[in-house]
Amino acid sequence: MRDEPPAPLTIRALQTGSGFAISLFLAAIVLDFLGHDVGHRAALLGVVALIATPALALAATFLETRARDRPTALLAAAVLALLGVAISVALLIGG
């Protein structure tokens, strides 16, 4: 019998998002070293991926726990909603 992790979708979302951000950062370093201006864009996308990873993991947590652990799913949804409000306020203020 194989032990399954308690939240495989959440773990996969965190691993994938982090791996994607790291690969963008590495590409940015190499491109900047080679003198290409696109390296700055790759670094910016890496930052966006790094910031978006926890939000995607919260969405994954909601999806995989909504049937078996309702309080956890509701908490994940509440945190996502709070993040949405915070981003909206930040965009309005910085706008």
What does this structure look like?
With 95 residues, the protein is an all-alpha fold. The protein has one domain (8-94). It contains three helices and no strands. It has helices spanning 8-33, 38-65, 70-94. The protein is flat. The protein starts with 7 loop residues before the first helix and ends with a helix. The model has no long low-confidence stretch (mean pLDDT 92).
Structural class: mainly alpha
Average pLDDT, to the nearest integer? 92
CA radius of gyration: 17 Å
The geometry reads as flat
Topology:
Elements: H1 8-33, H2 38-65, H3 70-94
List keywords for this structure.
95 residues, mainly alpha
Concise synopsis of the structure shown:
This protein has one domain (8-94). It is 83% helix and 0% strand. It has helices spanning 8-33, 38-65, 70-94.
